[in-house]
Amino acid sequence: MTTIAYRDGTLAADSCVSMSDESAGDWKAHCIKIYQYPDMIVGLQGESTPGLIFLDWLRAKRGKAKLRDSLVSSMADFEGVVLTRKGLFTYDRWCRPELVTAPFYAVGSGVKAALGALHCGATAEKAVEIACRVDLYSALPVLSFHVDSLTE
Question: What structural domains does the chain harbor?
Answer without folding.
Answer: 3-139 (3.60.20.10)
